[in-house]
Amino acid sequence: MPLTVAIVGRPNVGKSTLFNRLVGRRLAIVHDTPGVTRDRQEAEAQLGNLAFHLIDTAGFEESARGSLAARMTEQTQTAIAEADVCLFVIDGREGVTAGDEIIATALRRANKPVILAANKCESRASIPGQAEAYALGFGEPLAVSAEHNLGFDELKDALEPFVPEDERVIPGDEDSDESDDGEELNEDEEIEVDRSSLPLRLAIVGRPNVGKSSLFNRLLGEERSLTGPEAGITRDAIVAEWKAGARPILLHDTAGLRKKAKARVEALENMSVGSTLAAIRFAECVIVVMDATMAFEKQDLTIADLIAREGRAIVFALNKWDLITDHTQTIASMREKLDRLLPQVAGAPLVAVSARTGEGLDRLVPAIIEADTAWNKRIPTGQLNRFLEDALQRHPPPAIHGRRVRIRYMTQAKSRPPTFALFGNQLDALPESYQRYLQNGLRESFGLKGVPLRFALRTAKNPYAGG
Question: Are residues 223 and 354 in the same domain?
């Protein structure tokens, strides 16, 4: 197991900036507002030849029991308990404060090794209140600047004694595997990659306060994300490893997606929305969580359409099912709404769940696997063209300006999502309604429910046209 390092400190001392610097990516939201980080954010980090598991934490402060701040502090205490080493960050411009002394007491009580770092020391001059920093009992503070990448050699030297030899990176042997986010492929070509050993990337999205974090925690079997009655608690997209049977899954909890007008209220909210959108683009399958007592509202439809346009597999989870009395009538009504209001993902799995009681989770996992299987499916060309011949006989394409649109044959250009190339004449005039007819037929014939389908229309050149 790699060394686990928890970054601990009071709000607004630069913990998330330091976290992003060490992991080499902007995973945690950074803003001048104190208390931006609320959940534990985790990632693999590297500093020189040292590899370790890093945890970013919320600010540590005393507050009323049961309050949001108290629940954030509990998350931080959990991170301290899991860590092998704590990186205690103070503000090098302000020196030691009463809040720092409270955290120092908690760290001494935890009996874990502590490295003290004074952040925001751009000048690398003496730290204000350096004598008080010594009095915290963790030795001389390291003067660092996460924003300007200063003091990291000293931080590496401080961490080195704790990192086992077998967790150190051999120079020239670093893992160069890059994420395939945003990868563009030629529509007629697809690089076949064996993904059987790779984890399924699964994101949980929805409006604020529909129970996304509660579902996230229930699936993981631990209080990994902060929950409560307050809307909009989650700000960062939180990632955790999970297993559904033998299948490894990277599970993302995300911030609620509000209406645009509300999201423009402050920059911090826009950053949370950006984090959620990045999680959707990174995901392969997305669970859209809706409140079963008010499902398929306009914002639910907007979120689902966004996911379909991004080309991700989709599963709908009706949360708070324990509040519904007439189960049979409600699920039938919701299924009708889904297929009518979201024809672009008609037939997508719709699962009734309760994150509070655990009801329905045994049905959610198979639905996710089914949607992912459909998303990756490849269909032989012969089967596609037998389907196409039957579809054309049942319902021929319409005539445009007296000339009938002709579809000659079909091939699957790629999967993830399934994309099909149609070849024929005047296909640029093929109505959207007819394309939907073919898509629905493909879903029914080949088990492609729960994924958006795409067409690439290839019109043959007219050999009699001048040019």
Answer: yes
**Per the confidence metrics, is the pTM higher than 0.70?**
no
Q: Name the percent of the chain in helix, strand, coil, to the closest 5.
A: 35, 20, 40
Q: Do 324 and 426 belong to one domain?
A: no
| Residue 337 neighbours by CB distance under 10 Å | 15
In the structure, what pLDDT confidence band is assigned to residue 209 with cuts at 50, 70 and 90? confident
Contact call for residues 453 and 443 (beta carbons, < 8 A): yes
What percentage of the chain carries pLDDT values higher than 90? 37
Structure tokens at 76: 């931080």
pLDDT in tens, 22-46: 888 766 544 344 444 445 778 888 8
Q: Which residues of 260-279 are buried (b: 16+ CB within 10 A; e: fewer)?
A: eeebeeeeebebbbebbbbb
For residues 24 and 138, membership in a common domain is answered with yes
Which residues touch 408 (CB under 8 Å, ≥6 apart)? 423, 424, 425, 460
For residue 417, whether the previous peptide bond is cis, meaning omega lies within 30 degrees of 0, is yes
Mean pLDDT of 210-227: 78
Judge contact between 276 and 303, C-beta under 8 A: no
User: How far out from the chain centre does Cα 222 lie?
Assistant: 18
* DSSP 8-class letter at 148: T
Contact 282, 252 (CB under 8 A): yes
389 lies in which domain range? 381-459
If you search the block for the tokens 């490894």, which residue do you land on?
248
How many CA atoms does the CB half-sphere of 119 hold within 13 Å? 24
Name the strand (E) or helix (H) holding 131. helix 130-135
* 247 vs 157, higher pLDDT: 157
Q: How confident is the model at residue 193 (pLDDT cuts 50, 70, 90)?
A: low
